[in-house]
Amino acid sequence: MKKRAKKPSESAVEMREMVMPSHTNPQNTIFGGTVMSWIDIAAAMAAARHCGRPVVTAHVDDMDFMAPIKVGYHVLIQASLNYVGTTSMIVGVKVTSENPYTGEIRTTTKAYLTFVALDDLGKPVEVPELLPETEDEKRRFENAKKRVELKKEVRRTLKKR
Ligand SMILES: CC(C)(COP(=O)(O)OP(=O)(O)OC[C@H]1O[C@@H](n2cnc3c(N)ncnc32)[C@H](O)[C@@H]1OP(=O)(O)O)[C@@H](O)C(=O)NCCC(=O)NCCS
Fold first, then answer.
1. Helical H runs in the chain?
2. Which of 13, 29, 83, 141 is deepest in the core (most CB within 10 A)?
3. pTM higher than 0.85 for the full model?
4. How many angstroms separate the alpha carbon of residue 91 from the centre of ligand 1?
């Protein structure tokens, strides 16, 4: 039986972290791999909440690092469903840093990840439809749809799968 369609707000995830010395690179700012791991976790939680199934990361798209984050700063990771296919889900993630002493907030990273829902045998399984409601959600849905189509075109051109 097909599952009930869901709004992006029903599965959205917010995670907060504080940058510790163990999270940093030799420049004493956050290590990109740490941010990528937080992004993957937040996005996977949103995808699993949407489909109610185990999910795997299939693809990471457009991961931009726009500003470094210093030790002691707070990091907010926000993930929400942008688009769904038949068994795949695209999750948009925005990372912002907060200087807790001044309150200054900066957008530092943005990324789009594709997850696939798995059945009990580990095979791709159908996911619920997505019902974008707000103007932002509708814009993200349309942009993600275009990104999927462009990606298919690139794969065809490059003869990838
Ligand atoms: C993701 C995975 C389950 C897809 O399995 P598959 O047998 O190739 O499945 P299909 O070809 O039927 O594709 C299933 C869906 O995933 C999408 N998909 C598969 N690979 C993709 C990729 N690289 N990028 C974007 N979407 C992808 C397909 O477009 C399809 O979407 P749709 O059902 O919404 O139309 C499989 O490749 C896998 O297990 N990968 C390893 C995942 C993993 O271990 N991740 C952890 C990080 S290493």
1. 32-51, 135-158
2. 83
3. yes
4. 14
